[in-house]
Design brief:
Structural class: alpha/beta
Number of domains: 3
Number of strands: 21
Number of helices: 19
Distance between the termini: 60 Å
Strand content: 15-25%
CATH superfamily of the largest domain: FAD/NAD(P)-binding domain
């Protein structure tokens, strides 16, 4: 179909990118972007773009992508725990300052003929365009005004995070926990310019309150930064700041909000980006989801005969990928929320745990880009020398390692182990109250020699069971055995190597 007019509410990455793509495809249409603030008022620090996102952006708009890359900063990834830092030699990670990204997108949208209106607080109902794109962010007024129609749901999570920056380009991205007198703070930091790095720091509510940050948050003006927190955390992470300081830009403690909607469009109005859905920052998804959503919307409109067909097709095609990413992000968020409980592990095992946390990457796949890290992690798991690790068939090698003197292999027949308490895991949240109760009950069972966990065969259920297994293993003295279908061998191996379970029953010969 051919569009005559498009109005975009919101001048963020998703709105600007969609505006340019639509104007390029419909050059005779009127495309306008309404932004309630001036461009110079943009706040934030760096935005990371993973390999797949880069590929999608390049395919959709090579010219804009080239400008993004030209203004980006490439970096490696690392994790620093217990005085040791391990780096991954990845050559496909880039980051760009949020304001720089918006400048690039705004410039290219203007070059295509998009019109802009700043300091414009307008509602979707006030616009007369053929298509209205509500890219007005996580606090979307458009979504809230039609909450029942869109079926909007917002889940506010327990953990707290603070988005800051540093006036230095770190040598590489780093995940680093710091134990303080109040509790553990964890930094996700990466460089995005020659003199700047993003420094996102998170913690649990108890630590946040003990440090007094509930008080500083309550008294903070809406447009100010929490200088007390920045000063304290700058000292706490001094080793990683290399003598530099943390800087703020409306930096305050926040709780992540997961937005989901049953419908993304109503009439001629369609939600885009954070207005329609959010996914936890630990998989770098906000900008990705918004810009890739713009690509999908542009394609759906091009192939449809009318607007209703286009918007319905946009949802049909795009929703599965978004919901899958939200599920992955939820698991990643839970892993980071519980990260301090794993700090007894060596950093190499932690990196394997990080990479396999959401079931997307197996131990073998991770080894293709980080063979030395995986080899060391396997040696740590098996309590052996690195030279004894078999790289030829990792899964079988992992499964045949003994557990103490009682088990000659990690692969067992559960029926041959006396005293196991059978537990069918059907929880949806391995860190919720129902899981809390289950773990306490299992820990209090003095008659059982261990616990045998089973669940449904789908990947989501298996991953949830393994999360519960890790909790039982860490919070009780129980032997933990997981019974899995052989098709879940990769997940079983990852759980063994990262010490989430003790033994696995995969059926067949042990």
């Amino acid at each position: 179909m051919k569009l005559r007019s498009v109005d975009v509410l919101g001048g963020g990455p998703g709105g600007l990118y969609a505006a340019r793509l639509l104007k390029l495809r419909h050059p005779h249409s009127r495309v306008r972007v309404f932004e309630q603030a001036e461009p110079a008022s943009t706040f934030g620090f760096g935005v990371g773009l993973a390999t797949r996102t880069q590929q999608n952006l390049e395919a959709a708009d090579p010219e804009t992508f080239a400008a993004i890359v030209a203004n980006s900063w490439s970096h490696e990834m690392s994790m620093a725990v217990g005085g040791r830092q391990v780096s991954l030699a990845l050559d496909n990670l880039i980051a760009i300052g949020r304001s720089t990204l918006l400048d690039v997108l705004r410039s290219h949208a203007a070059d295509a003929g998009v019109e802009f209106s700043y300091n414009s607080r307008v509602a979707a109902a006030e616009l007369d365009a053929e298509l209205v794109i509500a890219a007005d962010g996580v606090n979307s007024g458009t979504r809230d005004a039609r909450a029942e129609v869109f079926g909007a749901r917002i889940d506010v999570h327990k953990g707290l995070y603070l988005w800051a920056g540093a006036d230095v380009a770190l040598p590489r991205a780093v995940f680093a926990p710091v134990r303080t007198e109040y509790g553990t703070f964890v930094a996700h930091a990466y460089p995005y310019a020659s003199d700047r790095s993003t420094f996102l720091i998170e913690t649990d509510e108890e630590t946040w309150r003990r440090a007094g940050f509930d008080v500083t948050t309550e008294r903070l003006p809406f447009d100010a930064s929490d200088e007390d927190a920045l000063g304290y955390l700058g000292d706490a992470f001094a080793e990683h700041l290399h003598g530099h300081r943390l800087i703020g830009n409306r930096t305050r403690w926040l709780r992540f909000r997961t937005v989901s909607c049953e419908r993304w469009h109503d009439g001629n109005v369609v939600l885009l980006g954070d207005a329609a859905h959010t996914a936890h920052y630990s998989i770098g998804s906000g900008t990705k989801l918004a810009m890739e959503g713009g690509i999908a919307l542009d394609a759906a409109i091009a192939d449809a005969s009318d607007l209703e067909e286009a918007l319905a097709e946009y949802e049909r095609v795009r929703r599965p990928a978004v919901e899958h990413l939200q599920e992955t992000a939820a698991r990643s968020m839970s892993w980071w929320d519980s990260f301090p409980t794993r700090l007894d592990l060596p950093v190499e095992q932690l990196l394997v745990s990080y990479m396999t946390r959401a079931g997307k990457v197996s131990v073998d796949r991770f080894a293709t880009s980080a063979a030395d890290v995986v080899r060391t992690a396997l040696a740590q798991y098996a309590r052996c020398d690195v030279s004894e690790v078999d790289d030829g068939n990792r899964n079988e090698w992992v499964l045949r390692q003994p557990l103490g003197k009682s088990f000659g292999s990690r692969r067992v027949r559960a029926s041959e182990i006396p005293g196991l308490r059978p537990v069918r895991v059907s929880l949806s949240d391995p860190w919720g109250s129902a899981a809390d109760t289950l773990v306490k009950e299992i820990g209090a069972d003095e008659a059982a020699s261990g616990v045998l966990l089973t669940t449904a065969a789908d990947t989501g259920s298996v991953l949830t069971m393994l999360d519960v297994a890790e909790r039982i293993r860490r919070e009780t003295d129980m032997l933990v055995v997981a019974q899995l279908d052989p098709s879940a061998t990769d997940l079983a191996v990852g759980a063994l190597v990262t010490e989430r379970v003790d033994l696995v029953d995969l059926g067949g010969a042990a």
